[in-house]
Amino acid sequence: MLSIATLFPFILALLAGGAAAGILAGMFGIGGGAILVPIFFHVFGLLGVPEDIRMQLALGTSLAIIVPTSIRSFMAHRQRGAVDTDLLKGWIVAVPLGTLIATLIAAKATSVELQLIFAVIALVLAFRMIFNRATWKLGDDLPGNPIKFLVGTGIGILSGLMGIGGGILNNTFMTLYGRSIHQGVATSSGVGVLISLPGLVGYVWGGWGRPGLPPFSTGYINWLAVALLIPVTLYLAPVGARLAHVMSKRQLEIGFGIFLVVISAQFFLSIIL
User: Fold this and answer.
1) Is 224 inside a domain boundary?
2) Which of 40, 189, 235, 270 could serve as a FRET partner for 64 with CA atoms 20 to 30 Å apart?
3) What is the pTM of this model?
4) What is the mean pLDDT for each group of 10 consecutive residues in the chain (273 residues)?
5) What is the residue range of 196's domain?
6) Cα dist. 159→33, 100, 103 in Å?
7) In total, how many domains does the chain have?
8) H-only helix segments in the chain
9) Closest Cα to residue 60, out of 218, 227, 238?
């Protein structure tokens, strides 16, 4: 039985991660998963969760927290009129479909494989954001179907395998087709809603009955962590949204990229060591 004294430093780490995730959710439209997943991975490890299910539990719990956080962030951005609602309507099927496919893959993949997926995608996107040039464009407007549908499905798959709200990928997609980073951030909060809801269901199903799960878990969702972090992320998401609208495009890109490099490096180190 774990005592309160033993759990206290882990609770503090979760709350600090939740605060950062809430601000990042509003600032970058990422749902906060990019910071929650590595925090969960290490905290669950310190609490004795087996290696073979630790990453899956981190991914599923992250997506569960993103549900209310992304909704709150989406509402804050929509009030500012920056959300591309037409794009979101076109992805109502594609993004959830991709997310459900991701949960099926995650249920079969090893923890190390999921860590590598997270780290590689984060690193590629980080370099794109840091070294971004205005000439890096694929078009002046978003493509139509079936390309748009396939991109939405791909964003759902990759986001579901990273436990994120899709903002990292959607921001890249939209800016490559001439949209501003601010509109990308705002629209990504809506993409997070389309990813997190089916992701929650999929990770509950994928981990149902698995041995080694910590107390208060349903499948690959740990509800204790969810209950601790949701109030913090909900409270701070609007703060991040306000920061996003006072920062320049380049400041957002560089800050976003540096953050991803740090997270990616941390996962590569955990695999090597």
Assistant:
1) yes
2) 270
3) 0.82
4) 64 77 68 76 83 92 86 80 86 95 92 88 81 74 90 94 83 83 82 91 92 89 88 78 72 77 83 77
5) 10-272
6) 9, 11, 10
7) 1
8) 4-28, 33-46, 51-79, 85-90, 94-108, 111-130, 147-162, 167-176, 181-206, 223-244, 249-272
9) 218
Q: Which pair of tokens denotes residue 189?
A: 């909060």
User: Which tokens in the block code for residue 195?
Assistant: 């990813």
Residue 193 backbone phi and psi in degrees, to 5: -65, -45
Q: Is residue 3 part of a domain?
A: no
Q: What is the residue whose two structure tokens read 């991975």? A: 41
Angle at 237 between CA 71 and CA 131, to 5 degrees: 100
CA atoms of 253 and 242, how far apart (whole Å): 16
Angle in degrees, 0-180, between the axes of helices 223-244 and 51-79, rounded to the nearest 10: 40
Contact residues for 15 (Cβ-Cβ < 8 A; gap 6+) = 228, 229, 232
* Residue pair 256/172 in contact by the 8 Å Cβ criterion: no
Assess if residue 129 is contained within a domain: yes
Please state the φ and ψ torsions of residue 217, each to the nearest 5 degrees.
-115, 140
Residue 2 lies in a domain: no
Burial class (CB in 10 A: 0-12, 13-18, 19+), 244: buried
